[in-house]
Amino acid sequence: MKEIVKKQLDDLNKRLESLDKVLIIAPDDFLVDTMISVVRNLSKKHYGIYISLNKPHTTINQILEKNGIKTEKIYFVDCITAVVHKTIEKDKTKRVLFASHPSDIRKGGTIPESIDKFIKAIPNEKFILVDALRTLLIHNEPKHVSEFIHNLARISKEFKTKIVVLTRKDHDEELIERISPIFDEVVRIK
């Protein structure tokens, strides 16, 4: 990881405790490093809900564990496994809910319903990490993505939950402009 990126992530992690909603825009090369850094930091004190839009929860879990992150306090909303596999093996830990598709973000959809179940079931302080906004835009109209992000902001207030949204640099600037006011901070990783 480039030294400047490491410094930016260290600085962000120092501020995360005082922020409720953060949008992180990173180059493709550093999205995974950014995710690892944020989850490592937040999972020390908080339970987490990881909304995985482009990788199965098993892959994300392996990445986190490989990087020394204990995942027993991380819950997954897996939005890709059901699309790729016809049958889904039930998660024995009850820490995974499978959404039907990354496009299922509207009210009453499997993604909001899964978030709602976890939010109500997880005790104490928690965070939601959305990985990644770009995938939502591939499968949804910008208007619906914006509504989904606004609903997450409501959840943040109502359930005292930190919201972290990751997206790729140089994509979807129009949507980023539209949703930026929702966030306490927009961080651009260089």
Principal-axis shape: globular
In whole angstroms, how far apart are the ends?
11 Å
Query: How many distinct domains?
Result: 1
Strand order of the largest sheet: 4-3-2-5-6-1-7
Count of helices?
A: 8
Strands, total number? 7
Please identify, by name, the CATH architecture: 3-Layer(aba) Sandwich
Mean pLDDT comes to 90
Q: Describe the main β-sheet briefly.
A: 7 strands, parallel
Strand content: 15-25%
Helix fraction, binned, reads 40-55%
Q: Rg to the nearest angstrom?
A: 15 Å
CATH fold assignment: Rossmann fold
The CATH homologous superfamily is termed: P-loop containing nucleotide triphosphate hydrolases
Q: Which class in CATH terms?
A: Alpha Beta
- Given as residue ranges, the uncertain stretches (5+ residues, pLDDT < 50) are none
What does this structure look like?
- The chain is an alpha/beta fold and 190 residues long.
- It has a single domain, classed as Rossmann fold (3-Layer(aba) Sandwich).
- The chain is 44% helix and 20% strand.
- The protein contains 8 helices and 7 strands, in the order αβαβαβαβαβααβαβ.
- It has helices at 3-15, 31-42, 57-66, 81-84, 110-121, 133-139, 142-159, 173-179, and strands spanning 21-26, 47-52, 74-78, 96-98, 126-131, 161-168, 185-188.
- Helix 3 links the parallel strand 2 (47-52) and strand 3 (74-78).
- It is globular and about 40 Å long.
- The mean pLDDT is 90.
Summarize the structure.
This protein is an alpha/beta fold and 190 residues long.
